[in-house]
Write a structure and sequence with these properties.
6 copies of one chain form a homohexamer.
Chain A lengths: L4 H8 L3 H10 L11 E2 L7 E12 L16 H8 L4 E6 L7 E3 L1 H9 L4 E4 L2 E2 L2 H4 L6 E3 L11 E6 L3 E3 L2 E3 L4 E5 L2 E5 L4 H23 L12 H12 L7
Parallel strand pairs in A: 2-3, 3-5, 4-6, 5-7
Antiparallel strand pairs in A: 1-7, 2-8, 2-11, 9-10, 11-12
Helix pairs in contact in A: 2-6
Chain lengths: 240, 240, 240, 240, 240, 240
């Protein structure tokens, strides 16, 4: 069942900074990937369900060139099966010096409607891949092919990426701060509460830019909260 | 089908240093685990087939205390299913500060006939576990329970451990130098050839200890090889 | 007010593996220091209140030889002020290659009744220091003096050590698995509950060594718990 | 006493590359922070006195959401007390994956006249924070809030940041190469001598761009130095 | 003997991503430097023969300011001897926090016809150096002078850089993905075969952008290869 | 010219902890190797002149098995040329997972009168090598042969080892704390002054063990120094 478009829209309006705070308040401290950053300029936040792919360390007999042509090689199957609207999340075991995808595979993923790629490995062919415009979060550019350092191991199982757990179907959100994994079961609740936090922080930022000191304002005490309610009731300016 | 006891015996007589050279000569450069060392004194080399278990990074909702009691939690299933004679190899993603097994699970593995445990994570309860005598290779002692840093993810799939690929059924060999993974398909050939290398090196060491210079001797040139054949024909001293 | 001797005794009977589980069940996941290990053979667990000392990175004008003779230099003041029964915990910012204390300072600490030293830096003069017998947990041996890499910065403030927070007065417990920090406010509760966990695990281990499978036994289900109560009521064998 | 505006101006004209050479010539080899880089485009070099803030590793009972609202929580006090013209330097113990400040706190610091922020932790809310224009040097973007990985510990004490010591009142200088800490007592001397080095290097660069080989010219021998004096006497071209 | 200009031209048309695949197919898995990235915007790929320079760790008596003026100090000799068309490759032992070259030395290298600089150390004076336009690949910006962390040790010997071996005369190729070292003996063969791979991948990319699935297309099976030959025969569009 | 036996004897009586302090007082802060530790039990300190050997990273065409038999391969030449009384110091670029020497080469070095081996790489065949009794300092045990990760590059040039510079002829001293490099030109001065420091510290330790507080005693003030002179004049007990 595809993700509710309203939920996607709501999450797209919430920064990953806000999401991590919402998750922390629900007991999830490990939600932001380490060492994974945006390599393609984005017009809006990346939001989509995780489709997972796993690599293990290279073993020469499992990582020859021929394996790339095998119809059942997991990395190639994943390229053709990740559904439209999903984010392909690839566990490269933090091997930043190994390139996981390049321009041809990214072109294919874009053609198939996949909305982004996230990996703790490297990105190959940066010059040719970035212009394709598909959002990609990775450890950085890396020329060597995947088989120079890794072996494809399976897909749609639970994985780790950037030292965060990812279960197929979790919601992936990415912006300039990096990538956050929202457990599927918490997505709706975090979206509602996060959108409210964003609104409150806009109000606080208006006050701070106008000269308010932070104590009592950030975090908001009861007085600030009642001022906020009045501001909301008066109608939040649309052009924000 | 259990491993041939003669093959096990032959491999037990070959050092991991020799095995890595044999594998390198067959194109396998990545065979020795990084950051994994013996924590229990051993009377002989560890040799057995790999039974694999995989963890992913902690997520708080997947790593609560309750999960340990679930009958389908992979780490607990593996403890009861790894067959006699096997080595339990656990992909802990290099989290040295997280303890993967402790005295109770190790006691159970020993009772079930598992011959060793290998992980790139930590070992808990070192004081109580070491006296059980089961060979354990790990990143070092670590008090925190597995659920403090990891979540069980699955078993008997391809994994990475210490930056080496491990496929279920691969042969695991461990000694003071660490752990080497021998791909199943190469095991017989590597055992035969490695035993021969060990014999030749015993002969070379006799010569070096007697004062021989290394050129022409190590590696052996044709002259040294023919001397070696005579030495072999004369009957290698048994008490070596 | 010195620590209750009964509490010290109870904690001495609990492994750090058990303590980390008790703390995790109370929401504290980060309690075991990383990269800190015992360098002196111990007859029993180290238990004591933390007396804290902080270093910052070296600056050559703050770290000359002369500073060591200044009566107000924090590292030297701490040596003379840490009270009997305390553990001197030193934040060396993980600089494993810098030696923090050596034989003369350790002799003085022992003379003053300090019960142990814990640091994420190095230990100097290992050959002369180990025979003094004072329990020391550190990142490893390191010849260079503290002033080669660090500057003393203050004492009895909140510090980090091995990536764990330490507040003066927290209870430090150390064994072969490493060092765990028990927040002062939780010490009594964790001691009581941890001692009970140790007793239950002794019972479970008896069953496992006798051949029991782990499901239902570890963790204990209701049946196992009632068996345990009977066993307890029957009087736990003293010689365990 | 605020910093002499002439000294600030002189230092603003000296690159951090030149400053590190000047400090090295005075025995200070460790002056440039490691792993700290500019995240906000700057029109001119950052120069100001250090106001220091220290974090220690997370402990869950010290790092809940509620602590952020406590009027005596050091990180919030520092935001309101760092004086105009100062640089807030934050010891985040190198935890690059933890966001230390975000858009609201940065807006408040700017409003209060603080001239920059330096930390070896991460920056949250990069998209909203960068447009505020306040110079920020950090380990990189990181969404998670400070309390997800750290606990506030104190302010205006000696700290470490990027493996360099910082004493309150030291002069902080930052440009595209990163951040250099100038000990307060050396600031005037380094400024005078550094400005002279910059002038001499402009002359050398003119010669090199005109085709001169480097021996005798860089570093300058006596001949080059006398040519330089003539060039200076002739009046250095203003438009450089 | 200078490098064949046709070879240079051919290599300039091949991405480093393609080169690593070509080298891997010839048994060379370690060819792409780790932790080395382009710091100067480039109009075309960097291609040239390696001229090597080696540093060892700092020793204070070998790394004083005076050494920079010695006519036989290797780093200064290399600046004047690296031939036109070469790439100066500097083994900085991965010390990313030490600046290896700055604006004056880079200006001199450019004046002498050296086509680029590659190092696993840092780049000083980024603001003044980047506008000079010479391609520079390094670990990142770093203000401190070379003598703050390293000592010059020799030139034109075999070195390591970014964990890859470099022999004087090897061909260096650098683009947005980083730097690849092509062993001299393989350069012509890799150039020919790599150019063919680039052409085939352009054809595949056309098909993928037009909606083709990857199985059978990437890697190309016999059908795809025959389609490719027809496409080639029909005349590949010039404007690609 | 071989090293003066009296100097060797004096240095053998001085701990590496004392040597690092002596060198620091002469401006040498970087003298103790990082990550290099004793793997063979020693009866006395290792002291000898450095004979240096350098490796670079692996390149498959330079690191095949055949290269080991080439008479001009630097690592094999060094084994036969390092003079009696020297210490073979091997720059393995910190590749702890690559074994640099094993039992046969160590047997040959011992036979030739070399007094020790120091490397920042790994040691192979630990079980067979340790009983040979030659002092070896390395990063730890590692089964894989040198050619699995490195290529021999040259000998008797300046190298780095454990992030310290080593020039052929420097004096190497090793004990339980690790390895210190004493620049040849400073050896006599450091030996004389270090022996005096050891004597003074023996006196201080006697006072501390007898109950003295450290202020004024360690470091020694004028009063303590005059007590020390009396103690010396009275004749230092021989059995110390």
């Amino acid at each position: 069942m595809p993700l509710d478009p309203v939920l996607i829209d709501t999450l797209r309006g919430i920064s990953t900074a806000t999401l991590t705070m919402q998750l922390l308040n629900r007991g999830i401290r490990r939600s932001a990937m380490e060492g994974v950053r945006p390599l393609v300029p984005m017009k809006q936040r990346l939001v989509g369900e995780a489709f997972t792919l796993a690599y293990i360390p290279l073993r020469e007999d499992l990582s020859g060139y021929a394996v790339l042509g095998r119809p059942d090689y997991a990395p190639r199957v994943a390229i053709e099966q990740a559904p439209p609207g999903s984010v392909l999340v690839i566990d490269a075991r933090g091997e930043a010096s190994t390139g996981i995808v390049g321009d041809i595979l990214v072109a294919r993923l874009r053609a198939r409607g996949v909305v982004g790629v996230v990996t703790d490995g490297g990105l190959r062919d940066v010059e040719a891949t970035v212009p394709l415009g598909l959002p990609i979060f990775a450890a950085g550019p890396a020329a060597p092919p995947s088989i120079s350092g890794l072996s494809g191991a399976g897909m749609q199982g639970p994985i780790g990426c950037g030292r965060v757990a990812v279960i197929p179907g979790d919601i992936i959100v990415g912006d300039q701060d990096g990538v956050v994994v929202v457990p599927k079961a918490l997505a709706q609740e975090v979206a509602t509460s996060g959108a409210e936090q964003e609104r409150l922080e806009r109000f606080i930022q208006i006050k701070v830019l106008a000269g308010a000191a932070t104590p009592g304002v950030y975090p908001a005490d009861d007085l600030t909260k009642s001022e906020y309610k009045e501001w909301l009731a008066a109608g939040e300016p649309k052009e924000w």
